[in-house]
């Protein structure tokens, strides 16, 4: 999995951490960081991206297939 957080969009709602706590953590500036893109099941990571209020998270398979946002 490839998981990225657009730090220009993240405003620290922390919903991603609640949905996939082994993938995301909040840094000292209350911006989400990816600690382990494979830390949780892909369904949880996609859920995290889906519920992010600012749509800051992008999720792709290793082969580049986009899981979120859907195109
Ligand atoms: S849910 Fe979105 S806005 Fe909130 S911390 Fe995670 S990436 Fe940032």
CATH architecture: 2-Layer Sandwich
Strand order of the largest sheet: 1-4-5
Low-confidence runs:
none
Shape: globular
What is the CATH fold-level name? Answer: Alpha-Beta Plaits
- Cα-to-Cα separation, first versus last residue: 17 Å
Identify the bound ligands.
iron/sulfur cluster
Main beta sheet: 3 strands, antiparallel
Observed structural traits:
2 helices, 5 strands, two-stranded antiparallel ribbon, 3-stranded antiparallel sheet, 24% strand, single chain, alpha+beta, Alpha-Beta Plaits, 71 residues, binds iron/sulfur cluster, 21% helix
Task: Describe what you observe in this structure.
The chain is of the alpha+beta class and 71 residues long. It has one domain (2-61): Alpha-Beta Plaits (2-Layer Sandwich), CATH 3.30.70. Helix content is 21%, strand content 24%. The strands form 2 sheets. A 3-stranded antiparallel β-sheet has the order 1-4-5, covered by helices on one side. β4 and β5 (66-68) form a beta hairpin. The model has no long low-confidence stretch (mean pLDDT 96). Iron/sulfur cluster is lined by residues 5, 10-16, 32, 52-54, 56-57.
């Amino acid at each position: 999995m490839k998981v990225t957080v657009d730090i220009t969009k993240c405003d620290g709602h922390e919903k991603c951490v609640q949905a996939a706590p082994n993938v995301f953590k909040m840094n000292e500036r209350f911006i989400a960081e990816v600690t382990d893109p494979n830390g949780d099941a892909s369904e949880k990571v996609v859920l995290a991206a889906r519920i992010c209020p600012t749509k800051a998270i992008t999720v792709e398979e290793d082969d580049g297939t986009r899981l979120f946002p859907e195109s």
